[in-house]
Amino acid sequence: MYDRLNMLSDQQLLYNFSANPMYSWKPGSVCNANAATWPVLSTARATVAQLNLGPCAMLAPHIHRANNLVVAVSGSTHTYMVQENGARLVEQVLSPGMMTIFPPASVHSMYNMGCGNNQLYSFLDDADPGTLNIAQAFFMMPKNIGMQVMPFVNLADGNWTATAQQIPAVGTGSQEGFEECRRKCGLEQHRFAGEHVGA
C-alpha cells in the first residue's frame, strides 16, 4: 500500500463532484465517482454518486447490479423501491442524516417534492454498478412483446418507436417531475414530445 501511495500525487487522491460534466441542478444530476471517472477507485470495488435533485426533480425508476446505500444531505426526498415480483412497495422520506438501502436489481426511484435543492450521496459496492432505466429498457423490446405485456399502451400514431422517443431522455440522470409540483414552485411547465400547447 505504501508503494502504491507513492505512485499517486495528492491531487490524484482528490475527487471534485462539482467538476463532473454531468453536474447540474436543472433539473438535477447524478455525478459518479467510479473507476472510469476516478481511476484510483479501480481497485476499490466501489462507486460513489452525488445525487442533485432540483425543485420537483426526480430519478426515474431504475436498477443497479449492486447494493445501493443512499444518504440524504439536504432537503426531504421521497424514495420508492420494489425488490422483486410479489414484494411490497417500500416508501421512505429521507431527511438530512437519514439513509436507506436498495438491494441489487431492485427497482427504485427518488423524487424531490419541494421547491428547494435536495442533495444525496449514493454508495454502491461495485466499481461498475451500471444503471438501467426501466421505461427505456421496456421500449427497447420488440413491439409485439411490449404490447402483449401492456396492451393498453396508447401508441403515438400507432408507432412503437415514436412512443419510445417521447420518454424523457436519461440526460444528466435526473428529469423534471410532476406538473402539480412545478406549478406550486412557479416553474415553467414542460411538454412531452408530440404534446401540443394547451393540451
Automatic annotation (TrEMBL):
* Coiled-coil features, chain-numbered ranges: none
What superkingdom does the record give?
Answer: Eukaryota
Arranged from A to Z, the UniProt key words for this protein are: Manganese, Metal-binding, Secreted
InterPro entries per the UniProt record, alphabetical: Cupin_1, Germin, RmlC-like_jellyroll, RmlC_Cupin_sf
Q: Which GO terms describe its cellular component?
A: extracellular region
SUPFAM superfamilies per the UniProt record, alphabetical:
RmlC-like cupins
Its Gene Ontology molecular function terms?
manganese ion binding
Q: Does the keyword Transport apply?
A: no
Compartments annotated for it: namely: Secreted
* Domain named Cupin type-1: residues: 15-146
Q: Which Pfam families match?
A: Cupin_1 (PF00190)
* Signal peptide, first to last residue: none
Q: Which family does it belong to?
A: Belongs to the germin family.
Identify this protein by name.
Answer: Spherulin-1A
Organism (species): Cladophialophora carrionii
